[in-house]
Amino acid sequence: MNVTDKLESLGITLPKAAAPAANYKTYSRHGDLLFISGQLPMEAGQLAVTGKLGGALAVADGQKAARLCAINILAQISAALEGDWDRLGALVKITGFVASDPSFTEQHLVINGASDLLVEVLGERGTHSRSAVGVPALPLDAAVEIEAIVAIG
């Protein structure tokens, strides 16, 4: 099943790729690598999940945020490839940042929300290395931010 069909079967419509909010690019290509800037858990143009994990937010809330970040990463990939998913080589790595209370230690479970979706949508090409990092705060009080490195052709 191709990526477009898989997204449709999961009921996912990719949003329009977000424009940069400051002096940076939302994605940058270097050779056959595409670097996707950190994506926030945006849904319908609004930040959908805010706050800190281990505080007001449970792991399931963080997984929802990570899943939304992954959807926005897919939107950036689609924009960079002009919708030609055949040019996608593989998802190489994601780095997930989780806004966390100091005692919260389940960042890896939160970022599973993104990893699971990316593998479900992209299949073997979505299997990736990753880091899951707890941080004291993220822009706009976002609960999660995820960046990606993608091999393209």
Automatic annotation (TrEMBL):
User: Entry's InterPro entries?
Assistant: Endoribo_LPSP/chorism_mut-like, RutC-like_sf
Which SUPFAM superfamilies does the protein's record reference? YjgF-like
Under the heading CDD domains, the entry gives: YjgF_YER057c_UK114_like_1
Q: Which residues are in the Endoribonuclease L-PSP/chorismate mutase-like domain?
A: 7-143
* A Pfam family the protein falls into: YjgF_endoribonc
Full protein name? Enamine deaminase RidA, house cleaning of reactive enamine intermediates, YjgF/YER057c/UK114 family
Recorded source organism is: Afifella marina DSM 2698
